[in-house]
């Protein structure tokens, strides 16, 4: 299976530059810096992959519109990118998606359909068949992975001597792209994925050497609603090729990391966005001096935020 | 009275580059972008002026140490800069400074003295006399103003066609530097100061054409604890030369702006840091399409943050 290359990621960087925020690295403590992707236009790194995928569509394909299904942030990203390109979009969201994410998706002019978690994908494919629209998958596409990989390009540009990069794993698009970039530019750096203990299917898959499926009902237990997806064959191939380890974190550790990010770095972070910092804090003494954690998103319901303050 | 020049500010930019975060502009809505200075190492723009002032001290002066008095963020900035240069620091804080600011100042290794608000300045001068240390004033010094002015350089670099820059006014160091930079680089841009209605002494001074003093007890009424100082002759000269207008905002408007910043831009902002956005929201229809608001700081007690969510 062909993996995304550094050249693909560099090409993506050029295409997405007009809309993506060039996020700085922020010092968290003496050894950790964070990459605040919660500051992107849709509040998450997802804009990178989604905008890149739309940028590469033909005018003809754009005219027929796009469809996406997502646990939330990808939905907003496709809606934002579709708005930017003047393309009609239908977004299929799970019924339990946070209200803030549903509202934000609609705010970009996309049509939203709410369906049970397990029916998202099939409903999206129905819409594609009905309309001739293009499905923009949340992670299972080389253009999406290449877009997310620009996070890794920027990390190495800003910290060329980086030793460890920590990033969340859900469907695996972010870590696939980041790992492809980091390993190409700095082979000695370790790339470590992070999952909630309650949705640790990727860790189980890497241990088993093949994709291990967890029931959706199990993965839905975590508060980290952005980390309930599971890798595809394509992203799992990237994980096996490039990812050194996956660390799992508890729900309590996720809350504690959110609190620290709010207080110490003045970032509003969603549970999924805090897992990489949670993994750092879990064994802070073990990480080397130049560790970077990707803070992937900040779309959190205010009640959830208030609880962890 | 000599005003800070563009050349001074450019020289400051070179000196502070090693420690200051190059903050991006973040889109707030179709017309407003924000400059998130809450992402600086001490959670506020103050690191720019303080670090610059210490960078320009002789080795001999550094060996004798530094002293600062402040309503909070300047204290942390001097403590941080002193730590970076290996210089001993004593910080004089008002007794009512937020606990989070006191703790942060101490965390950088500085000695802290808590005194009544009105005695801060005299106690700092005593310490200078006793120790031969150098006073690093929060705003009344050209090196501090030049450091803060680097915010303006970056705004124009990132948005060369900017039409309005909104920035908070307290002692006036930030807006003096920002206005000097913006008016030199883009004379057609308007520079607008923002104050709480409860501490609107600078607005009164500009109307009167001379410094109008408000009793400290009046200025202490605002929740925006970073905006309780009043301009000096030096900063007032910059305001008269470069600032087009001062807008005042209510306490309610400050809270609403904090809430919008948390929800829409995922930034943790202190009340003082939100006033420029509050001024934008107060008369949103009037501002032109390319308006920038400086979000000056993010050191807020969690209880205050939870109240506005």
UniProtKB/TrEMBL annotation, chains A, B:
Instruction: Check the record and name the InterPro entries matching this protein.
Output: Ser/Thr_Dehydratase, Ser/Thr_deHydtase_PyrdxlP-BS, TrpB-like_PALP, TrpB-like_PALP_sf
TM region positions: none
Query: What Pfam families does UniProt report for this protein, alphabetically?
Result: PALP
Protein name, as recorded: threonine ammonia-lyase
CDD domains linked to this entry? Thr-dehyd (cd01562)
Question: GO: which molecular function terms?
Answer: L-serine ammonia-lyase activity; pyridoxal phosphate binding; threonine deaminase activity
PROSITE patterns hit by this protein: DEHYDRATASE_SER_THR
This molecule's function is given as:
Catalyzes the anaerobic formation of alpha-ketobutyrate and ammonia from threonine in a two-step reaction. The first step involved a dehydration of threonine and a production of enamine intermediates (aminocrotonate), which tautomerizes to its imine form (iminobutyrate). Both intermediates are unstable and short-lived. The second step is the nonenzymatic hydrolysis of the enamine/imine intermediates to form 2-ketobutyrate and free ammonia. In the low water environment of the cell, the second step is accelerated by RidA.
Q: Which UniProt keywords apply?
A: Lyase, Pyridoxal phosphate
As recorded in UniProt, its EC number(s) are: 4.3.1.19
- Cofactor(s) listed in the protein's UniProt record: pyridoxal 5'-phosphate
Q: Which family does it belong to?
A: Belongs to the serine/threonine dehydratase family.
Catalytic function, reaction form: L-threonine = 2-oxobutanoate + NH4(+)
Q: Which organism is it from?
A: Saccharothrix australiensis
What is the enzyme's main class?
Answer: lyase
Gene Ontology biological process terms in this record:
isoleucine biosynthetic process; L-serine catabolic process; L-threonine catabolic process
Domain (Tryptophan synthase beta chain-like PALP): give its ranges: 20-297
């Amino acid at each position: 299976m062909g993996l995304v290359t550094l050249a693909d990621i560099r090409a993506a960087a050029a295409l997405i530059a007009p809309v993506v925020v060039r996020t700085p690295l922020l010092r968290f403590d003496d050894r950790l810096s964070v990459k605040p992707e919660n500051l992107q236009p849709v509040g998450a790194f997802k804009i990178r992959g989604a905008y890149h995928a739309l940028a590469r569509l033909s005018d003809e394909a754009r005219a027929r519109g796009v469809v996406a299904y997502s646990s939330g942030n990808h939905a907003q990203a496709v809606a934002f990118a579709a708005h930017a390109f003047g393309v009609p979009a239908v977004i299929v969201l799970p019924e339990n998606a946070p209200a803030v994410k549903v509202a934000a998706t609609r705010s970009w002019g996309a049509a939203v359909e709410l369906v049970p978690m397990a029916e998202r994908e099939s409903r999206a494919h129905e819409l594609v068949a009905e309309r001739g629209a293009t499905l923009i998958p949340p992670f299972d596409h080389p253009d999406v992975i290449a877009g997310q990989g620009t996070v890794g390009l920027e990390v190495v540009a800003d910290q060329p001597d980086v030793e460890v990069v920590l990033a969340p794993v859900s469907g695996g698009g972010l870590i696939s792209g980041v790992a492809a970039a980091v390993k190409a530019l700095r082979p000695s750096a370790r790339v470590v994925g992070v999952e909630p203990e309650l949705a640790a299917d990727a860790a189980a898959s890497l241990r088993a050497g093949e994709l291990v499926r967890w029931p959706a009902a199990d993965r839905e237990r975590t508060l980290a609603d952005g980390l309930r997806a599971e890798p595809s064959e394509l992203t799992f191939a990237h994980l096996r090729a490039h990812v050194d380890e996956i660390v799992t974190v508890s729900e309590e550790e996720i809350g504690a990391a959110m609190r620290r990010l709010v207080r110490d770095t003045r970032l509003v972070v969603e549970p999924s966005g805090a897992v990489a910092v949670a993994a750092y804090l879990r064994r802070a003494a073990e990480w080397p001096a130049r560790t970077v954690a990707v803070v992937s998103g900040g779309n959190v319901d205010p009640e959830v935020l208030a609880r962890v303050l």
